[in-house]
Here is the input.
Amino acid sequence: QKLMVLGKPIASPVLSVFDDGSLEDLRGSSPYDDEGTRTQRTYLIRKGYLSGRLHSRETAFLLGESPTGNARTISYRFPPIVRMTNTGIEPGTVPPEDLFADIERGVYAVEYVGGNTALELFTFSPAYGYLIEGGKVGEMVKDIVLSGNLFQTLGKIDAVANDFRWTEVGWCGKGEQMGLPTPTGSPHVRLREVLVGGQCHA
Here is the structure.
């Protein structure tokens, strides 16, 4: 709980994360949430600091904060609960190709197939990846899994590229409500000293 105090540094200063249900033409977008609150851009992390939380009217009241337009439901059969809409990492200033230049040995993880969190621990499974050696992208790596302490890993992000794109295939399940569309967007991001497992593909 001490980690989740608003205004507390929680990640690298190059990282800003937002949720925005007001964006046009994305599957997580709507002018209003399912409680009638207008959607908006909410920064969860801004320059490394915890700057906001997603809220319904109920959770906002309980924490003495403002609703953010994140009360969503998959149908009238279920009550609205706090959910993501369109969630992304804000682009930085580094050209993508510069992220690889000084990596002596690493992994370029591409896309994703899933991930999980358990308290402060996480696992993340990219769709596929490539081995990086001497700043060059080389052979393919399969069955990659990134894992570790979530907060420690957020602090190890040392560069965020200036490119950005949305991935529209995301879905989220929470409680009994499965299959809610939740697009995610990101530029290329570089992390140092992250635990990676996988196999080189001959």
Q: What stands out?
A: The first helix runs from residue 57 to 63.
